[in-house]
Amino acid sequence: MNAPTGAEPSPDTLAALFEILKSFNKAGIALTPGTRFSEDLNFDSLIVMEFVAEVEDAFDISVPLNILPDVATIRELALAVEKIVAEDK
Amino acid sequence: MAALLDRFAPIMSQRDALFGDDGVNPFQVKMDQVLSQTEAMIGGRRTILVGTNNYLGLTFAPEALKAAHEALDACGTGTTGSRVANGTYYGHKELEDSLCEFFNKEHAMVFSTGFLANLGILSTLMGPEDYILMDADCHASIYDGVRGSSAQIIRFRHNDAADLDKRLNRLADKPGNKLIVIEGIYSMLGDKAPLAEIVAVKKKYENVYLLSDEAHSLGVLGKYGRGLPEEAGCEDDVDFIVGTFSKSVGTVGGFCVSNHPQFDILRLMTRAYVFTASLPPSVVASATVNLGLVKNGGALRKRLMRNANKLHAGLTAIGLKIASENSPVVAVVAPDPVMAVAFWRGLIEAGVYVNLALPPATPYGYSLLRASLCAAHTEEQLDEVIAIFAEVAAKVGIVAPAEKKRVAVG
3-state DSSP call for residue B367? Predict the structure, then answer.
């Protein structure tokens, strides 16, 4: 949401998130960058926490809980992850 | 247009699926008569209470009852004011002085509940440049407290000092202060924080503070009941201790103690302290007296742990899976929420009250029958509890009594 209009995450970041999401995508819906965690994947607060922990491990980052309300789609998460990775360097 | 609370529809259907029939449900348990610290009349039955967090059994301590009666007569039923307006009486100050003496700390603030103490302190302590690193299994009041903070909130893996180390290391170059938040004993499974390891990690970095919520460990751990920091010998390394009077202290209210030199400004900046009514004088008087009983409660702590070990051993012998160890909390794992509800109902109908705890309020997605022991439980009561657990577990099909093993479910 905070990303500039038209910003796109790298395909590698998206692919890594798609991979993590496999085990959370119980309904087996087709994942796209625009897939929404709450509405499309039915994530509740507990699943969000488990999922975020796996994302943190995969990218070796800490994702502050503060940003979660602004992350609705896989694209937004990918951009947020890339921002944290860049800041950590 | 959706109805006001339609967003809770999935929870409502889950609730109705689990409790929708006519059976008794945990949200309706009503104690018609309180017989003692360990027994009450529920649904016309004498019921043994094994889920009250009344660890030391001080709710009927004669000294505290007397002090409460006297304060009630002297000061009335309530203060009708907040701590910073007309709600600070001599008793509140005495209680804060007693807390300072009990914990050997410079400063103490008394809140109206433990929940409010966490909400107030955690939302106020850290600023916009700062970081809070909290254990993932922390209590809801800690989650709600940090949500009100302007700091960045980071979770670390439950009881994992190495994961905390990794996360602090990533922040090492950031200028802000960091606050680690843990609990002495975690309520659902009764497990302790690895405090010595966490303190060692804390000391590796600059500008790191440590806050421990001793809600379940106050009165339970340490020779003088000062909780995990006393037991672990780390009291000087814990910068802020938050706690409650609603468990071992046997009444209600919350507190925070600290040696931080600027602590007193929190009295003006903490909204959950400034903008809520203070505790009634009778509650304050009983908390002050019971704090003294907690300090000298070595014998009660021994009985509490003896009782906990007896229940743990008894339920293990039946063949139940227990997720807690060496703790005043004995958490029995049921195979799934449906079995857990059936188990819980069987127990309450046979005269045993425990807590039913279901995901998402539980770690690892466990469905739990959570028992908490009291120093005042007698051997006979616990024998009865164990016998009833055995009977109900067999009836519900969680254990086969003859072979003492779990039946596969689903």
Answer: strand
For chain B, first and last CA: distance in Å? 39
Note the pLDDT of residue B401.
Answer: 57
- Smallest Cα distance from B125 to chain A, Å: 17
**Phi, psi of B254, rounded to the nearest 5 degrees:** -135, 170
Contact indicator for B248, B57 with CB cutoff of 8 Å = no
**Cα–Cα distances in angstroms (integers) from residue B241 to residues A83, B96, B129, B156, B273, in the given order:** 35, 13, 23, 19, 16
Strand order from edge to edge, sheet including B355-357: B321-322, B329-334, B367-372, B355-357
CA distance B314 to B325: 13
**pLDDT for B122-148, tens place per residue?**
999 999 999 999 999 999 999 999 999
Catalytic residue numbers of B?
Answer: 187, 216, 247
Q: What is the pLDDT of residues B240-258, one digit of tens each?
A: 999 999 999 999 999 999 9
User: Has residue B354 got a pLDDT over 50?
Assistant: yes
Q: What is the ipTM of this complex?
A: 0.86
Compute the radius of gyration of chain A from its Cα atoms: 12
Cβ within 8 Å of residue B288, ≥6 positions away: B67, B91, B94, B95, B98
The total number of residues written for chain B in this structure:
410
User: CB-based contact (8 Å) between B170 and chain A?
Assistant: yes
Q: Which residues of A touch B136 (CB under 8 A)?
A: 49, 53
Percent of chain B with pLDDT strictly greater than 70: 97
All structural domains of chain A, each given as residue ranges with its CATH number in brackets, are 12-88 (1.10.1200.10)
CATH superfamily of the B15-56+298-406 domain: Aspartate Aminotransferase, domain 1 (3.90.1150.10)
State whether the Cα torsion B187-B188-B190-B193 is positive or negative: negative
Mean pLDDT of B30-39: 97
pLDDT attached to residue B184? 98
Chain B residue with Cα closest to A68:
B153
Q: Which residues of A touch B (CB under 8 A)?
A: 44-46, 49, 53, 61-66, 88
Fold of B61-295: Aspartate Aminotransferase; domain 2 (3.40.640)
Q: Which residues of chain A have a CB within 8 Å of the CB of B155? A: 49, 53, 65
Residue B319 to residue B396: CA distance in whole angstroms: 13
